[in-house]
Structure formats: structure tokens, C-alpha cells
Design brief:
Layout lengths: L6 E3 L4 H11 L3 E6 L2 E7 H9 L10 H4 L6 E3 L4 H11 L3 E5 L5 E6 H8 L4 H7 L5
Parallel strand pairs: 1-2, 4-5
Antiparallel strand pairs: 2-3, 5-6
Helix pairs in contact: 4-5, 5-6
């Protein structure tokens, strides 16, 4: 699980989100509207929902391309529970919350592969340092 959660307001631009991801070596940011969680933007969202559609990354707001379906799992859940939830909801990331529903991290498909099947191709790839 990634414990450093990066929050950006929905009014932030796509290029600001991309820079935040690059600077922190992460693939997602949590989108907020005031004090509320509003969604999640991933590096894939930027490519598929902004760049591929020809949208200007300096003027497109992340609130326009965010995945709004917020799927959370409790921090005490088992990795197998997270994998099942990802499978059922067809997502690659889950927000992880504590018992008070405060966000404490984000778990990705790669995180689960490292934990559950480190010798798999995805587990091995996910455990390596990025090649950027």
C-alpha cells in the first residue's frame, strides 16, 4: 500500500496532476471538492480521458476526468479481500481507510501482486524500481 496520499482539488489541471505524480513517483492522486473526496485520477486516466481525446492539459481540470466511483476498503482487510473487491468492481486501485473512514493509503493491483504472488510476472515487475 502507498501511504503517501496526494490530494488535489478538482479545479487543478491535468498537467499539475501529472507533475505531482512524476515528482512523487506515484500513479494516482485523490481528487477533492472542498473537504470531500470526489474521486481518483490515475496516470491512465490522464492518457485515456485527456491526452487521447485531444484535451489541453493546461486547461482541463482533473475533476472533469476523475473516476468518481470511490471504492474503499478497511486497512485491516486481508489482501485476498482487496483482490476480490478489485475483481468484482474491475478496478486497479482501492482507497484504504481506517475505522473512522479516514484515508490512510491506496493499494494497487501491483501492491497485491507483490504481497500475494511475488514470483509472478506482475509481482516481479511491480517490485522493481521504475525505469523512468
Amino acid at each position: 500500500m502507498t501511504k503517501e496520499v496526494v490530494y488535489l482539488p478538482a479545479e487543478s489541471t491535468v498537467d499539475e496532476a501529472a507533475r505531482a505524480m512524476r515528482e512523487r513517483d506515484i500513479g494516482d492522486v485523490v481528487v477533492t471538492e472542498g473537504p470531500q473526496l470526489a474521486g481518483l485520477v490515475t496516470d491512465r486516466d490522464i492518457v485515456v480521458r485527456a491526452v487521447a481525446d485531444g484535451r489541453d492539459p493546461t486547461s482541463t481540470r482533473i475533476g472533469e476526468i476523475a473516476s468518481r466511483d470511490i471504492i474503499m476498503i478497511d486497512e485491516n482487510a486481508y489482501a485476498a479481500d482487496a483482490a476480490e473487491l478489485m475483481r468484482d468492481r474491475a478496478v486497479r486501485r482501492l482507497l484504504v481507510s481506517d475505522s473512522d473512514r479516514r484515508l490512510v493509503g491506496i493499494v494497487s493491483l501491483g501492491d497485491l501482486a507483490i504481497q500475494m504472488d511475488p514470483a509472478s510476472a506482475l509481482g516481479e515487475i511491480s517490485s522493481k524500481a521504475p525505469n523512468n
